[in-house]
């Protein structure tokens, strides 16, 4: 069955909007750990958090708090920097997903250039794997990036679905075609294949055409829906929408 990783960064985005400079206030809310527990109640299979260099949403303490309170696997998203590798080794999350990071961006804008940074990423992957984490590369569904991910011995890839999610007209079918080809190639090369970015309640079924997917990481649309339905219910509805994924076909 297709698994659901819920990205709760935006819960912290809301907290930071009010309390970034007063995290010791007795009024700090919303609570990140409570969000993780609500996601679990709704049927999440893992909790995703991205500690950014600028700490615009979650921080290391949030990830540690969720790890202590919630028994779901943690998928820790991070840039391949010495600071983040140190944090990942301390936190020892179940999964680490390496992502590109650019201070100006509103959200992650594209996949990691694994092919262009093979040597440094090979060292990061090896260090994180020795620390006990399963390592994933967030990449565009491009042959070169998938082959490079296998070559540097990543365990997994997360195919970037943002281009598909934003495509209109004929581009939509061609973006699905890229994801299908990318997933097949990753699977052939022995990589576990996940996907994420821009997935919502409207486009989820289109991804059923992409074979071999194991887990989807979804944040913005679930947290947006949670404003009106509550987080547990929003996660439940997404988990429901993911049922019936055919998998290998
Ligand atoms: N996967 C990765 C690697 C991401 O960076 C993000 C966004 O933080 C997501 C998945 C989730 O994307 P969205 O918030 O659009 O669902």
Keywords:
10 helices; 44% helix; 8 strands; 249 residues; alpha/beta; binds pyridoxine-5'-phosphate; 16% strand; TIM Barrel; 8-stranded parallel barrel
How would you explain this protein's 3D organization?
The structure is a single chain. This protein has 249 residues and is an alpha/beta fold. The protein has one domain: Aldolase class I (TIM Barrel, Alpha-Beta Barrel), CATH 3.20.20.70. It contains ten helices and eight strands. Strands 1-2-3-4-5-6-7-8 form an eight-stranded parallel β-barrel, surrounded by eight helices. Helix 5 (118-130) links the parallel strand 4 and strand 5 (134-139). It is globular and about 50 Å long. The relative contact order is 0.15. The structure holds pyridoxine-5'-phosphate.
Helix and strand content put the structural class at alpha/beta
CATH superfamily: Aldolase class I
Would you identify the regions where 5 or more consecutive residues have pLDDT less than 50? none
What name does CATH use for the topology? TIM Barrel
Shape: globular
- Could you tell me the number of beta strands? 8
Residues in β-strands, percent: 15-25%
Task: Please tally the helical runs, counting DSSP H or I stretches of 4 or more residues.
Answer: 10
Distance between the ends: 13 Å
Give the helix/strand layout:
Blueprint: E1 3-7, H1 9-19, H2 32-42, E2 46-50, H3 60-69, E3 74-78, H4 82-91, E4 95-98, H5 118-130, E5 134-139, H6 143-151, E6 156-160, H7 162-166, H8 170-188, E7 192-196, E8 213-218, H9 220-229, H10 231-241
Parallel strand pairs: 1-2, 1-8, 2-3, 3-4, 4-5, 5-6, 6-7, 7-8
Helix pairs in contact: 2-3, 2-10, 6-8, 9-10
The structure holds pyridoxine-5'-phosphate.
């Amino acid at each position: 069955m297709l698994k659901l990783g819920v990205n709760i960064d935006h819960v912290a985005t809301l907290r930071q909007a009010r309390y970034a400079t007063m995290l010791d206030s007795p009024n700090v809310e919303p609570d990140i750990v409570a969000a993780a527990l609500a996601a679990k109640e709704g049927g999440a299979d893992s909790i995703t958090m991205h500690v950014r260099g600028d700490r615009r949403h979650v921080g290391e303490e949030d990830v540690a708090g969720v790890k202590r309170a919630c028994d779901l696997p943690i998928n820790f998203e991070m840039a391949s920097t010495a600071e983040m590798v140190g944090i990942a080794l301390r936190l020892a999350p179940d999964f680490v997903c390496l992502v590109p990071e650019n201070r100006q961006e509103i959200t992650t804008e594209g996949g990691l250039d694994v092919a262009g940074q093979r040597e440094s990423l090979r060292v990061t992957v090896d260090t994180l794997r020795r620390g006990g984490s399963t390592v994933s590369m967030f990449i565009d569904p491009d042959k070169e990036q998938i082959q490079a991910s296998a070559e540097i011995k990543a365990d997994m890839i997360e195919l970037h679905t943002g281009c598909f999610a934003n495509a209109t007209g004929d581009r939509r079918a061609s973006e699905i075609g890229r994801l299908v080809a990318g997933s097949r190639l990753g699977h052939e090369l022995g990589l576990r294949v996940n996907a994420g970015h821009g997935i919502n309640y409207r486009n989820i079924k289109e991804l059923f055409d992409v074979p071999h997917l194991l887990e989807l990481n979804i944040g913005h649309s679930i947290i947006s829906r949670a404003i009106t339905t509550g987080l547990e219910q929003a996660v439940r509805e997404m988990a429901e929408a993911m049922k019936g994924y055919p998998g290998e076909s």
